[in-house]
Amino acid sequence: MRLKIKQQEKRKHSEMVTAVGWTSSNQLYSCSDDNSVYVWDMNGEAESSPFTLDTPVTSMSWQPAARGISETLALSCTDGSFKIVNRSGRVEKQITKAHEGAVICIKWSHDSSTIATGGEEGDVKIWAKTGILRSTLAQNGKAVFAVAWSPNSEQLLFASHRHITIKYIQAGQKQIQWKAHEGCVLAVDWNPTNNLIISGGEDCKYKIWDCFGRNLYSASPYEYVITSVAWSPNGQLFTVGAYDMIRLCEKTGWTYSFVKPNSGSIMNLSWSLDGTMLAGAGGNGSVVFGYLVDKKASWENVEIQLKEDNKIHVIDVIHEITEELEFMDRVINFSLGFGHLVVTTSSQCFIYSVQNWQSPSRMDIRESASLIVLSSKYFSIVDISNGIQIFNYEGKQMSNPKFSGLRVEFLSSGLVSISNELVSVVDTSNGKIVRLFELISGKPSSHNAEHTQEVIEVALNQTEHAAERKLCILDSNRDLFLTSAHRNDFVKLCSMVDSFRWNESNDMLAAISDGKLYVWYYPNVVYVDKDLLILSRAMKDVSNEVGKMCIIDSFTGSLVTVRRVDGRIVTLNISPYPALLYETSDRGQWAKAIKLCRFVKDRVLWACLAAMALYARELNTAEIALAAIDEVDKIQFINYVKMIPSEAGRNAELALFSKRLQEAEQILLQSKLYYRAIKMNIKLYKWERALDIAFANKKHVDTVLGYRKRYLEKIQREESMDKFIKLMDGGIEVNWVAIKTKIKQEKEAEALSGKPYEAQ
């Protein structure tokens, strides 16, 4: 990927351009020290000069769009004032004495309710959109060169001298401050999607920070001062400006491209809302336009590359096919995976199969797509106007999930995930909640996943079986958790995780943590037997290959593709045998699965087979696999289960083994095995539940009372439960001969109606 630069042969501005900003309709406004304002189209051509100013502008900020209001422009001026004007230049509001000295920077909040300004005298002020001063947030005594809002608009970041400060708008909260550069900090930007901060300063460096002030990346010094920085809207890229230089970087810090326009110092940078174009304010009066080209994507044997803004080059290396896809409009976004390529332009969406590049499905869209998320059968398009839309690969819209507080402009690829029947979306207004929706109807699922920490990445597995649908989340502490998509049952898998990814074709999960590649060959084991979780996990030291802060790009078959922090692609391989084990177990070919494990002679593979067999209730295979990994106690349990005469009894015992008490009880009650259900609760010391079952079914009330009395005598305690006190006072007699007779009769009836376990 690189930036393709375009400049005007003849400059429109006669003096330094100080600020540029894109509107929601992809028009660019530029302001200069010559007091002129120009409007530019996306081709880099000046359309008009709608108005002129009476004083030079230092900074501009467009009010966030798509909220049912007309966009207005906030302009900070050198005479200490700031203005709010509409597109035609009509002044909606003007504050003449906002600061002593120049107002250096100005910024609308993300919710459009507040404006922040920073002044030459060192004050940071918060204003209502009506122009009323709400508060003076800080008084530094040194000039404030840049401000930026937090994603939730509750905190403000400002740069003064060598320090960066993050302060809550409401009083009473502790501020965060750190020394960011050796010289003055001249530019900052805080991305609402990834919650990361970039800064540039007089020490000629640019740096990346998290919201707690921890340095994630520090560039080596450039030869000139860094004068501007800007995140792309989706948070995947950022740009850095200096004298005759614009650098395009990936979010981890490494450089995609480096261009040298004839512009002087780049005083300001601004991305278009669709993230495909960049504009820079040149110190010599020029306006620099940058277009993203040579963007690449690959999947299995197919590689695509965006050659020009409307042409995609396709190469199939196995079938030796080369295609050139040309579009009428500029390509806004594309995504390749699961055997399909989805391309969006400003007005249409094209859906290609990798088997047929000649006849794509196409559909009209009303808004540029900011995000495309693929799955095996469906894909999602996210845009500001329509939110999250789900389609199949024939182009038919399936649903449009919505919820109160949804801010689609803050969504990134890691915050949205889809499977065959579910859609998961991280609630950006409350990052601890992952909202789940039915894919076909778009209706909310029966529950949401609620975590204790903020979720920064989420992914649904792609298995065909809806009952095995799992949700994997990465929280703000970089801890990786797994939970069922149907209930909150979080299990911690790993800490210090850089990145994770589900396999595209089976249920394997890969993660990189502290320089090690972890692969959970059968993550469903956490709902079968947690003791087998570690045994069924593979670990490989890859610190020399991937380094730190790497990202897993794809996990297909037995290959894990990782992008290093410096941008290099590394391919890691894992054992191919777990994928074969999935194929044999899915087909119920347990004998072949055993032969495979005996051939490979790997304890990890045996542990996977044991868990798969237990989940499928294939006890003979489970017994063989557990014997291979020396799990003697579990073998004894398997033999005990096999002796249970009824299938319902065996299934209930296996459900209880997997800690699914309610399921086990339901199985027994539906099969009218009342004594087993009562005895199970008694063994778990759930005395009141055992009594409730006895009363509800009018069976074994005296049995429960007898076991309760025996238990109290053993521990030498008096009865304390009200239900049992009333029962004892009611005069129910405990006759152990009668009790044992009833138990014997029920067991005999179970043996007659059931059949012993046999190999499947």
TrEMBL record:
PROSITE patterns: WD_REPEATS_1, WD_REPEATS_2, WD_REPEATS_REGION. It is found in: Cell projection, Cilium. The keyword Repeat applies. PANTHER family: OUTER SEGMENT 5 (PTHR24098). The keyword Repeat applies. SUPFAM superfamilies: WD40 repeat-like, YVTN repeat-like/Quinoprotein amine dehydrogenase. WD repeats lie at residues 10-43, 96-127, 178-210. Residues 294-577 form the IFT80 second beta-propeller domain. GO terms for biological process: cilium assembly. It comes from the Eukaryota. Residues 605-751 form the IFT80/172/WDR35 TPR domain. Keywords: Cell projection, Cilium, Repeat, WD repeat. Its main location: other. This is Uncharacterized protein. GO terms for cellular component: cilium; intraciliary transport particle B.
